[in-house]
Specification:
23% of the residues lie in helices and 26% in strands. By secondary structure, the protein is α+β, with helices and mostly antiparallel strands. It has one domain.
Length: 195
């Protein structure tokens, strides 16, 4: 009897440092220039806290996330859409977090890229050290998610959509679909006119 053959499907990921950004969009260029000053939370760099594009990823995926946004921003601008960074209007806490928006001058769609991380207990944490040692350690997964209107309108939003890296597929394969979804979201957000 022959042994069963196993098939392993590798998730294609760009090699670290292999992502090249040529003539980046001004928002991407600013984020790259300030990369060393970006604070971390939950194991991810939080670019939005420094007033840059909203990516929340670990260090190895920064260039990949910025390249994805660079491609989307340039495609949107070819269609007459503008991209900008703004604060949210809800509360003082939320105003400290800047968001990335695409706008057609009438409606806007929030754009976010997040890396999934896993949480585990920190063995060095004790009740006595609760103020000096983090209770959890966050490990990167290398999986990115591209989100539309994730924070702004919640999960009930008509325009809220996500694309996530999965086995054998990266979100880079869906950039045309993402750009189309953003432009469709502008239309979906407009109030319907009854005639």
């Amino acid at each position: 009897m022959k042994p069963k053959a196993t098939i392993q499907v590798a998730v294609p990921t760009p090699a670290v440092g292999s992502v090249e950004l040529r003539n980046p969009h001004p928002l991407i260029r600013a984020a790259l220039a300030d990369k060393s000053q970006v604070p971390q939370e939950y194991g991810r760099l939080q670019f939005r806290w420094r007033g840059h594009v909203d990516i929340r990823v670990t260090q190895p995926l920064v260039r990949r996330a910025l390249k994805i946004l660079d491609t989307v921003f340039k495609s949107l601008e070819k269609l007459g859409t503008t991209v900008h960074i703004a604060t949210r209007e809800r509360s003082g806490y939320e105003r400290s977090r800047r968001c990335t928006f695409a706008t057609d001058q009438r409606e806007q769609v929030q754009i976010t890229i997040k890396e999934k991380t896993t949480q585990r207990s920190n063995p060095a944490w004790t009740e006595e050290k609760r103020y000096s040692v983090a209770k959890h350690i966050y490990d990167p997964t290398g999986r990115l998610t591209f989100m539309l209107d994730e924070d702004r309108y919640g999960w009930a939003s008509k325009s809220g959509r996500t694309w996530t890296d999965s086995r054998g597929h990266l979100i880079e394969e869906y950039l045309d679909e993402i750009v189309s979804a953003i432009t469709q979201a502008f239309v979906d957000k407009r109030p319907s006119v009854d005639v």
